[in-house]
Design brief:
heterodimer; A: 114 residues; 11 strands; B: mainly beta; five-stranded antiparallel sheet; 59% strand; globular
Chain lengths: 114, 108
Amino acid sequence: NAGVTQTPKFRILKIGQSMTLQCTQDMNHNYMYWYRQDPGMGLKLIYYSVGAGITDKGEVPNGYNVSRSTTEDFPLRLELAAPSQTSVYFCASSLGGAGTDTQYFGPGTRLTVL
Amino acid sequence: KNEVEQSPQNLTAQEGEFITINCSYSVGISALHWLQQHPGGGIVSLFMLSSGKKKHGRLIATINIQEKHSSLHITASHPRDSAVYICAVSNTGNQFYFGTGTSLTVIP
């Protein structure tokens, strides 16, 4: 099993550009999550999904969109990149919900918006 | 005020020392998680617990629900334990809140 994979590993965007961060898991997990990690700050939950077709907001959803058309994939879309979105983004998955199962994390995507 | 507070922020230990990292939280939770973030950035889940104590190798995690406090202990620390240790809590609404992490350096 590859676990949770993310692409790209690094990306530099100009202000106003758009991009999609890809996340795929091959563990048949129901739950998937997107987090951002800023220097000196704890991880913040952006969006999560409890299964295909179902997504919900986390603590910091503004400026992002998600979709979950398959169990395996959970892409994160930035429509109009802003410098405040410079961060490291982690995708994670778990079989059960927040209090029931271990989360498995992807390797992260380092995004810089200039 | 953050929902999750960790102490200390930074910790340096000699190889072989017993290490304790503390975590306090202020919200209702369904579980508390301890994570390890390697120098390269990868994150691994170490423990998930909702009561009592768990042990895995040289790592022990405890939680006191009444006091809203958890500790992560590392016995016989080793340089390969050098990493950032992150405490997180989750609730039944699938919301996660993370501490800012404790950076541990173990010197040979």
